[in-house]
Specification:
The protein is of the alpha+beta class and 418 residues long. Among the domains are: 69 residues; 89 residues, Roll (Pdz3 Domain); 37 residues, no CATH class. It is built from 14 helices and 20 strands. Helix 3 runs antiparallel to helix 4 and helix 10 runs antiparallel to helix 11. The longest helix is centred in the C-terminal third of the chain and has 17 residues. The radius of gyration is 23 Å and the shape is globular.
């Protein structure tokens, strides 16, 4: 598909079929990206990577991380820079290193492409960093476009490094570590594998139940497996309850346009001939439902639970439970934090979460070598002014981020004073 046709269809989708259009339309500004690609076409330098860059920047400007645009062309391999950065009033610092051995957490970033970060922020259209507060700015996409960075190491030496490409970071596995005073810190990992997390929790059930204080570290969890919440729910519920009671309000409003229903049915087509009869039956039922809903527009619904409503959730663990939160807590991990906030048993410590819960039910549409994903449902809470879009779930105890956290786990230390 030619880029101009792709953009036209994509922008029509956002206006007519995307659940967040009413709330996000003021951020809809396609002109810079249409101009970018038009100039590239005129200069004969059009490429799939340039289309990926333009549409990804447009999505960032909408400030909804449920909007995703991916390149799936043969030969293209997604990559990481092998580190991440974070900014505050004191400057920009490397806050985590996964693969880039030339850097260390705590290195100060003096320049990106020989331009100071604060100057980039001043000159760059603000929506491209997807935040108004420095510590919530999202720099990963910008770093992927950069050639080099200049850093100051802990010993005071300065160095300009040409950025390298590394494989995309794999999902983090669950981990458990002891804190002083008999406290335990459970990091559930990425929360993309419910079975693995359930097995991990079950294997450590005795120490989790018997510790004096339990810390659930959700700061960097971003998985999309809602069933991964189940083994953790016993440690945040106030009392024994059912799954329906633990998960609370599941009301949503879904935009059943003809386009959305056609795309949903297309997504189900492979499952209509699956070897699993239960999967075939589910696909048949959903297909019939979407055909019936086609063209009805906004419909009030209740989002299905990941388990039967009557499933028992039994309270477990110590009286003192703390949940650590931060900007990169999103998707199902953020849902867990929201449930913990509603239950009121655990203390939420850290920074506000990403703010991705208001829009749900993703639809995928393929454009030759691209896939565009957008949500078609909106939560009742967001419609009633109780959403978390852009601001996230607020912690009970707010601790602003500082560069010292690059080299010391200050939040884990703060837990012991609560």
């Amino acid at each position: 598909m030619e880029s101009n046709k792709l953009l036209k269809d994509l922008f029509l989708t956002v206006r007519n079929d995307y659940a967040g259009w009413e709330a996000k339309q003021a951020r809809h500004n396609p002109s810079p990206f249409v101009t970018m690609l038009g100039q590239a076409y005129y200069d004969r330098r059009m490429s799939s990577l340039l289309v990926l860059q333009a549409v990804s920047q447009y999505c960032a400007g909408m400030r909804d991380r449920n909007l995703k645009f991916e390149l799936i062309a043969e030969g293209y391999v997604p990559f990481s820079r092998g580190f991440s950065v974070r900014r505050c009033a004191k400057g920009m610092f490397v806050d985590a290193v996964t693969q880039e051995a030339r850097l260390r957490p705590g290195d100060e970033v003096l320049a990106i492409n020989r331009t100071a970060p604060e100057r980039i922020v001043k000159n760059l259209p603000n929506p491209l960093l997807a935040a108004d507060e420095p510590e919530r700015e999202q720099w990963n996409g910008y770093l992927k476009l950069a050639r080099d960075i200049t850093v100051r190491h802990a010993d005071g030496t300065e160095e300009m490094l040409e950025l390298a490409r590394y494989p995309v970071d794999t999902d983090a596995a669950p981990a458990l570590r002891k804190l002083p005073g008999g406290a335990l810190l459970l990091d559930p990992g990425s929360m993309n594998d419910a079975e693995a997390l359930e097995a991990f929790v079950e294997a450590h059930r005795a120490v989790l139940d018997g510790c004096s204080r339990l810390v659930l570290d959700l700061r960097a969890a971003a998985g999309d497996d809602e069933e991964a919440l189940l083994p953790l729910l016993p440690y945040i519920v106030k009392a024994d309850c059912t799954a329906a009671e633990a998960f609370g309000d599941r009301r949503i409003r879904t935009n059943y346009t003809k386009v959305n229903c056609t795309r949903l049915i297309r997504m189900l087509t492979p499952y209509l001939v699956d070897e699993d009869p239960a999967l075939r039956q589910m696909a048949q039922q959903l297909t019939a439902y979407y055909r019936d809903q086609s063209g009805k527009g906004w419909v009030d619904e209740v989002e299905e639970l990941p388990v039967p409503a009557e499933t028992p959730i039994q309270r477990r663990g110590p009286e003192k439970v703390v949940v650590l939160t931060d900007t990169w807590c999103e998707q199902e991990a953020e849902r867990f934090v929201q449930l913990a906030k509603q239950q009121g048993r655990a203390v939420l410590l850290g920074r506000p979460t990403m703010g991705t819960l208001d829009y749900t039910n993703p639809v995928m549409v393929e454009y030759d070598e691209f896939i565009f994903t957008y949500p078609i449902s909106r939560t009742a809470a967001s419609l009633e002014g109780e959403g978390v879009d852009e601001r996230g779930v607020q912690p009970d105890v707010l601790v602003p981020w500082t560069p010292e956290e690059c080299t010391a786990d200050l939040l884990a230390q703060k837990v012991l004073t609560l």
